[in-house]
Amino acid sequence: MKNKDEDILANTESVTPQIIHIPEKPPFLPHLQPTVKVYAAVIEPKDANTLVRKLNQIAPLENLRHVKRVQKKCIDGGKLQLCLLLSMAVENDGEVDAMPYEILELVKSYQLSTFIAKVCKYAATSKEEWDEQCKLWPSSYHPPTYNISGITGFTEEESQSVFSFMRHAIDLATSCVGQVVNAAVIVDPSTKQVIASACDRVISSASPAYEVSKEGSCSDYPENLNSSNLENQQTSLLDSSIGEFERVISNVACLHPWRWAVQSLSPNSGCWHPLRHAAIVVIEHSSARDRQLFPDYKLNGEDSIKEDCTLSPSKRQKITDSDFQSNDHSSESVRPYLCTGCDIYLAWEPCAMCAMALVHQRVRRIFFSFPNSNAGALGSVHRLQGERSLNHHYAVFRVVLPEELLRNKV
Questions:
Q1: Three-state SS for 177?
Q2: 8 A C-beta contact, residue 248 and residue 237
Q3: CB 71 within 8 A of CB 121
Q4: What InterPro entries does the database record attribute to this sequence (predicted)?
Q5: Is the peptide bond before 274 cis (omega within 30 degrees of 0)?
Q6: 82: Cα separation from own chain's centroid
Q7: Which of 116, 273, 313, 333 is deepest in the core (most CB within 10 A)?
Q8: What is the pLDDT of residue 203?
Q9: What is d(CA 319, CA 342) in angstroms, rounded to the nearest whole number?
Q10: Are 68 and 138 in contact (CB under 8 A)?
Q11: pTM of the prediction?
């Protein structure tokens, strides 16, 4: 059986570049959507409103809020038939228990003919899922309430730009000979400028090659990139054993977020820092860049903090989207609020810590190339982008690049 690293290599072998949207919830194949059994009955249309009101009181569908109570059918001759969902059916050892007493009384009062039906257990996450669900029983579908541009597709020019920035991230991730780390690149999509870039810095005594030489750069990409020195250093590791590849990626911080707690490094090899992942480091670089470009700038309300300490941080730091138009400090009058509106490119799918840090940074879109089956927070293990309790959401994409790219860069 293939292990996870073999799967990674297989997924990138002989493929054309493509951008895949990672939805907020894992989609179910139509025939694999989990279902539950319910009690239903055919009713007279004149009794529908009364029965629905009574059932909402005695048997509310707490765990099936997406399922509608009434199903309309056209039977022979075009006659309309109404079926009513009475309650969930409790199963014990494969056998369906009897209906609750209150439901039985209602069935007897209206002389209903009951039957057992199946409904989908979870709400649809896409219109395609919803269409399949309604074939069993009517349900509701609510598209995401937030709107993130870029989900519906990319133009050819936008796609090439995404591929270029992702290649830049992979260049950085493979810039240390014999090892692969994670790399992060923050980009202003409106100007196609690299705002900041960084690699993992979890090993305190790591080689300077782990540091990004162009951190804080805001030159136009891709003209500012020079990877010719990398080409002379790199050797093909994909032809070697999977064990060798596993050793090479052993220092990717997001793949091993708990390594600092379980690994004892020798005194000569330094210590494994729990927080210095590429995404965290690039956020620091971006913040340092803003402080350098706007040394005299104060966030809204900062002057009044001493006078009114009751102001919340959100009111002291609030900035409108219209204020965030460009990172060109020569024409910008206000300092950007964190990374609002920016995109970030990561070689590897981030862990939960990094993904949550990017929520706080208000990034618009996250692109990663390689999935993280150990601790991925954006599709592989968790889907943080679908957590409704968060006050910010970003769109997530996987950028699938040809296997030859990694072969040439590692």
A1: coil
A2: yes
A3: no
A4: CMP_dCMP_dom (IPR002125), Cytidine_deaminase-like (IPR016193)
A5: no
A6: 40
A7: 273
A8: 76
A9: 15
A10: yes
A11: 0.60
